[in-house]
């Protein structure tokens, strides 16, 4: 069991450290980041209950509905809900990049517990593949979510639009990812290019958040 927990936890911690250290200005308090990670871990249980209930009722009969609604919308909404109501208004959410750190922490907490359950049922030999795909994808969805929440925090004019984007884009990307896995027999030919796209897209958001934060610092000093 210890091997499974370690195999499930290691990629999440590595990815969280990666995005945490990408902050070029002020690193967030580790206690707050850890709290977000734990919140993400706990989210797995209500999400699993709701998804199980949908399975029992047989509400979704198509791959598209399953991928986009039963999986993507439900999971990303719960993650978004936690980030928005637990840390968006927090005193430590004081930079554009902060949303990326906190949202990726919640996402990776969720991915870790989900990964533990999968490895228990299927075997630790899947740990490497899980790290490359589901765990990484959850992290990237979190980065996108946090990027737009950071924009919303510091843009009063387009605040509502960016808050909507902070849910819409991660849920859409998550739905596409799951739809590929559910419908393609040779899904590696589609999911690998999609993962490359996600990494490029997310890293651009990381770079842009830091660039905009630099402009904010320059503006504040000038003011």
UniProtKB/TrEMBL annotation:
One GO process term, biological-process aspect: proteolysis
Keyword terms: Cell membrane, Hydrolase, Membrane, Metalloprotease, Protease, Transmembrane, Transmembrane helix
UniProt superkingdom: Bacteria
Residues that span the membrane, as ranges: 6-21, 33-54, 60-88, 100-121, 127-150, 162-180, 186-203
InterPro entries per the UniProt record, alphabetical: Peptidase_PrsW_arch/bac, PrsW
EC number: 3.4.-.-
Top-level class of the enzyme under EC nomenclature: hydrolase
Entry membrane topology: Multi-pass membrane protein
Cellular component, GO annotation: plasma membrane
Statement: the UniProt record of this protein carries the keyword Protein transport: no
One GO MF term attached to the UniProt entry: metallopeptidase activity
Localization: Cell membrane
Pfam families: PrsW-protease (PF13367)
Biological role: Involved in the degradation of specific anti-sigma factors.
Protein family (similarity comment): Belongs to the protease PrsW family.
Record protein name field: Protease PrsW
Naturally occurring in which organism (per UniProt): Alteribacter keqinensis
């Amino acid at each position: 069991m210890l091997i499974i927990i370690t195999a499930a936890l290691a990629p999440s911690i590595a990815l969280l450290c990666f995005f945490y250290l990408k902050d070029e200005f002020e690193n967030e308090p580790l206690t707050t980041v850890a709290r977000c990670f734990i919140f993400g871990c706990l989210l797995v249980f209500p999400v699993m209950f709701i998804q199980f209930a949908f399975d029992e009722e047989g509400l979704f009969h198509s791959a598209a509905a399953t991928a986009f609604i039963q999986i993507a919308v439900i999971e990303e909404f719960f993650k978004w809900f936690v980030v928005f109501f637990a840390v968006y208004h927090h005193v430590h959410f004081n930079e554009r990049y902060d949303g990326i750190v906190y949202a990726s922490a919640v996402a990776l907490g969720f991915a870790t517990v989900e990964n533990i359950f999968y490895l228990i049922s299927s075997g630790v030999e899947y740990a490497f593949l899980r790290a490359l795909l589901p765990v990484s994808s959850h992290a990237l969805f979190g980065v996108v979510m946090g990027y737009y929440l950071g924009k919303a925090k510091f843009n009063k004019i387009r605040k509502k639009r960016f808050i909507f984007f902070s849910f819409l884009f991660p849920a859409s990307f998550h739905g596409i990812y799951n739809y590929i896995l559910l419908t393609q027999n040779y899904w590696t030919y589609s999911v690998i290019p999609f993962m490359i796209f996600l990494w490029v897209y997310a890293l651009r958001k990381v770079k842009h958040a830091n660039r905009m934060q630099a402009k904010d610092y320059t503006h504040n000093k000038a003011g």
